[in-house]
Write the structure tokens for this entry.
Amino acid sequence: SLCMGGLFSKPKPVDPSATPPATADKKNDKKMATVKRAALICIDGWGVRTENHGNAILQAATPVMDGFRDGSEANWGVVAAHGLAVGLPDGVMGNSEVGHLTIGAGQVEYQDLVRINLCVSEGKLPSVPNLVAAFESAKKGSGKLHLFGLLSDGGVHSHINHLFAILDAAKAAGVPRVLLHMCLDGRDVSPTSGPTYVAQLEKKLADLGLGEISTLSGRYYAMDRDKRWERVQLAYDVMCRAAGQCEKPEGTLADFVTAKHAAGETDEFVKPVGVLADGGIADGDTFMCYNYRSDRAREMFEAISTEPAFETAVKRTPAQCFSFTQYSSAFTSLQIFPPQKLKNGLSEWISEQGLTQYHVAETEKYAHVTFFFNGGREEAFKGEEREMVPSPKVATYDLQPEMNAVGVGDAMVAQITAGTHPFMVCNFAPPDMVGHTGVMEKAIIAAAATDVEIGKIAEACKAAGVGLFITSDHGNCETMLTEDDKPITSHSCTPVPFVGLLPGGAKFAKLEGGVADVAPTMLAFMGLPIPPEMTGKSML
């Protein structure tokens, strides 16, 4: 990229955009004297769509944004703000939280499901450190690894593909014995689909030559989340093999579950039953739950990994317990996929350089331009000034579609003109908040009002020599109507703009990407290094 080695390698004459940053540290003043000032506008809910039908943006008077798109004064790119580009499953519409998080982080924080799916599909699961640790614990201990989780492809709490990938990895790692304690679903999938999944698992185990099904239980018992410990205990006592808690099924286990249906128990409500005499959890074994969603995994995991919240004759103490993700910050057990920690996002990195910054939004979107933009951090970074402009007090925002765009625009112009902060960011709420009302004519007003304020900020930036960047967290008001003119109140999967109105005519080298590319592009323009954590790419 041109960003570091090209655009900013030669010494530059002092220009108005290179005001000394406001910082108490005078040594930093000298070091940072050539930082270019930059402003970021995040328009909430402004997607790029060429069809006119139901498109409040195209039908509104938006001469400023139209000029950026059609003229030569600014760079006009489009970036993805949905699906994998913001860490969500492919094809899922974006939202304000993940949009701002990704823009501010300069990297994609994948949701647990997406992260695990990518890890499995790329063949990286066998080398995940804490999965390796789980296998080693079993091999060095009793030789037994117990796997507990929901057996279906519902994809809400778990996925059968994850279980199969763990089994493949366990076989490759040489784990001597794997015992499976399976929860039947019947809630996120058909209530009588259990035999299908059990048959798939039986075939997998036979093909692999590793793994035995030890326990079957409806999720109603083993995956309670309402502290109904008497339900959890029924499953716990079977998994730990209290006396008389085992049956010897005739034929396949798939047939066994079908017989339960005939007796009136659908998958979710199959009473816990042991199906392998020596398959219970014993002291010194290794235990792992492969559900990635925490709420229905937490109670059983607590009972096995810490202390049961009930009296039981068969309390077991495994050598080590592992959860697939973080089920609770109170648990000290290792997680196969621990929470990602976002470090060195745009706000933190600018603060680390000894520079100051300014964040402003109206009440409705204040958290997005502070907490989410800063990577889920509540308190401001050193040198970060925040301002909240009050949102109008109306029942629904179609009653005042311009909201307080004027207040945000005025606040931003004042900061640009004052020359205090090297980095400034604002959010305009109307296109999203009015888009959610589904009232097309009001969304048109919201888009037009926002465009006026963008124009004011653009003029202030040009006068002060400040680089202006404009993007959005997701689409919304460009997609207001279905083909048969019914209102659409949700977000969309359309790309969003990424505009660069830059002093000296600096040009984007590419015009497509994802919203994670915004932060590295801005740092490159400012003449600051890009932290290694930012996986987005500068578009300069």
Q: What stands out?
A: The domain at 113-335 is CATH 3.40.1450.10 (2,3-Bisphosphoglycerate-independent phosphoglycerate mutase, substrate-binding domain). The chain has a mean pLDDT of 93. The chain has two domains: 2-8+32-110+343-526, 113-335.
